[in-house]
Amino acid sequence: MPFEELKPSLDAAYKKINQQVTVKGFRQGKIPARVIDQRFGRGAVLEEAVNDALPKFYTEAVNEGELNVLGQPEVDITELKDGELLAFTAEVDIRPAVEIPDYSGIEVEVDAVEVSDEDIDKSVEQLRERFATTSPVERAAQDGDVLTLNLEAKVDGEVLEDGVAQGVTYTVGSGELLDGIDEAVTGVEAGGSATFTSELKGGSAEGKEAEVTVEVTEIKSRELPALDDDFAQLASEFDTLEELRADSRKRLEQMKKYDQATQAQEKVLDELLKLVEVPMPEKLLEDEIQTRKHNLVNHQLGQMGLDLAKYLEIQGKSEEEFDAETKEQAEKGIKTQFLLDELVNKEKLNVSQEELTEHLMRRAQSSGMSPDQFAQAVVEGGQVPMLVGEVARGKALAVVVEAATVKDSNGEVIDLDDEDETAETVEATEAAETEGDEKPEA
């Protein structure tokens, strides 16, 4: 760069330093440039000017070269001659060229949509459980009873500070508290107690064997409503149990169709990726791996009170297996984005305001934020282009799915032409692949 192009940044540097320093005999902001050079060094001014100018010069070079860059560059100032020139190199990954393959021959098989009587029975039973009632009984505790308990845990004979709990509600047989508690409380009457040994699942002594004393203070039997028309009227808008079961069948079929669509999206995407070679920028891949690890450890696991070591223990994986899986997922995510972005360009797909709004509403719902809060965070974080890209890639994959042959396990060809359902399914797939925090960064 000719040195004169650095002049606006030099002027800005002198002005900035003027506001930050004081020199006896001069008013703040009125210190001459030669005095600043004498007192603080011309080098400090040049450094400030170069740091200010480099982003603009780099952007001009990228635009001039018509480069589609990825991530941040590594900049190296190769020569700086005061009053003469500034020379620098910037190394950055660029988006690789991707050739869209012929995807018209893709064929995948998905599960058939089949709802059995047993499925309906289970659905109705779950609804029945929600309307169960309890009443105190004077007998020993048995499976299904709702108990009120006092608990005390000891490790090496010492009561833990966080090992005492009063008035805990527990349903016998649910398996929600400690291993061994069901056997311990079964047969115990109100006012009685039992002691058992169990491995603690949380707290200060997590993972240690503890001697747990449980006192039963109250026993309530749990009664389910009869499966009849009265129950249908109580639990739904229907008048008869037959109508309730018919509605359950309809909802289960819709859920299975949605699952079928999701399965089709995932399988078609996998087949599409097999048809094309996508060069993998190493720096971008490493950044994506680190981002996925950070999101898992600091967001998902942090909210559950787990660290990576405990998570791997629960999953039964070694750190090497985890790293390999993370790398594989990151590579797939990057390849998917490159390929679908190229499809967006090839098919000239656009995103309407309505499509973007619908996508934003769904993302807000999955993040637990209100649409207004989510939209504000997206705008403040400059992430609107990210959301537009998600919708566009969803539409691109829908084009491929439409061209593919999708059959169910019975050999029947499935028609997946519901674009709204397709878009929702793709978004769910992308969210799973991203494994990031759903909430946008403001």
From TrEMBL:
Region feature (Disordered): 411-442
SUPFAM superfamilies: FKBP-like (SSF54534), Triger factor/SurA peptide-binding domain-like (SSF109998), Trigger factor ribosome-binding domain (SSF102735)
EC number: 5.2.1.8
Domain PPIase FKBP-type, chain residue ranges per copy: 144-191
InterPro entries membership: PPIase_dom_sf, PPIase_FKBP_dom, Trig_fac, Trigger_fac_C, Trigger_fac_C_sf, Trigger_fac_ribosome-bd_bac, Trigger_fac_ribosome-bd_sf, Trigger_fact/SurA_dom_sf
Keywords assigned by UniProt, alphabetized: Cell cycle, Cell division, Chaperone, Cytoplasm, Isomerase, Rotamase
Enzyme's top EC category: isomerase
Compartments reported by the entry: Cytoplasm
Feature: compositional bias, Acidic residues: 414-424
First and last residue of the signal peptide: none
Reactions mediated catalytically: [protein]-peptidylproline (omega=180) = [protein]-peptidylproline (omega=0)
A Pfam family that the UniProt record links to this protein: FKBP_C
Domain notes: Consists of 3 domains; the N-terminus binds the ribosome, the middle domain has PPIase activity, while the C-terminus has intrinsic chaperone activity on its own.
Family stated for the protein in its record: Belongs to the FKBP-type PPIase family. Tig subfamily.
Function in brief: Involved in protein export. Acts as a chaperone by maintaining the newly synthesized protein in an open conformation. Functions as a peptidyl-prolyl cis-trans isomerase.
Protein name, as recorded: Trigger factor
